[in-house]
Amino acid sequence: xxxxxxxxxxxxxxxxxxxxxxxxxxxxxxxxxxxxxxxxxxxxxxxxxxxxxxxxxxxxxxxxxxxxxxxxxxxxxxxxxxxxxxxxxxxxxxxxxxxxxxxxxxxxxxxxxxxxxxxxxxxxxxxxxxxxxxxxxxxxxxxxxxxxxxxxxxxxxxxxxxxxxxxxxxxxxxxxxxxxxxxxxxxxxxxxxxxxxxxxxxxxxxxxxxxxxxxxxxxxxxxxxxxxxxxxxxxxxxxxxxxxxxxxxxxxxxxxxxxxxxxxxxxxxxxxxxxxxxxxxxxxxxxxxxxxxxxxxxxxxxxxxxxxxxxxxxxxxxxxxxxxxxxxxxxxxxxxxxxxxxxxxxxxxxxxxxxxxxxxxxxxxxxxxxxxxxxxxxx
Length: 379
Known about the structure:
59% of the residues lie in helices and 2% in strands. The chain has 379 residues and is an all-alpha fold. It has two domains: 53-89 and 132-378, no CATH class; 90-128, no CATH class.
């Protein structure tokens, strides 16, 4: 890559006196654009063109496809129980030659220490992409699976509207994931890695849109984390039969989340996601078995169930002390609170797909981002 070359165009080959005179008058001097290597660019450099992002992205995708073709195919056991070493990435270049070259360098010179080769730059990006397709499956399933709000949503909206809501938003999440996958493949590369929504927004629309997207996503994460802490705090409160302070219950989950947040890469987080998926499935099966053979918990329902959101008439005790029979509705159930109960249930259903905001982060750590489209429909 040159530092700027000044060239003089030679028109003497055609032997025309007029062209030679014009060349002598004007000089025909033109400056070739200064070319910078990717590692010499700023983190968000406005001088990098969109075509440059796409060029390096095409090179990275071709390398990933060639590397995937040389690997053995994964079996069912590898998918269900991903190996701890499955995320080790093969780096380019010879380690022996690299170490010998380092010994030959004069590292006392600050300019030499600050120099980053293209191999070092791309290998650093490859080393961060450690998640396999199996790991991505568990991460998406853990992030998207929201079974705990399904009962409340169906109870306040009815079977028809509830199933329609989950189906429509599931399709919307799939289409959104496909569009993100398409954009990511065309602008992410080892030379210019895209790590979040802000990077995609910056490369397509500019700096102002990156700030807007980062602010909105940060606000959504704050609200989501707060909601999770409050919900899980309520769960501990019910398990302890309200003998433990509610603030302490929320603090327990906040500290647990802080401890889990120390995991730096998604590949290291896979083992926890595996257990989360199996625990969720176990809880759902146990809940279905208990609900089918037990009476409703009217005390808990009166505290904040679907019946309470609809006004409480369906869970209020009768004159003889008994409770009304369980009723299900194919359409919107009658409500004494107007549309408030149905609106709260709708928000519960939509929240089940809130994890789609992490799709870009998942693709950013995949060894082969193309696999995301194979994993997402299964989830």
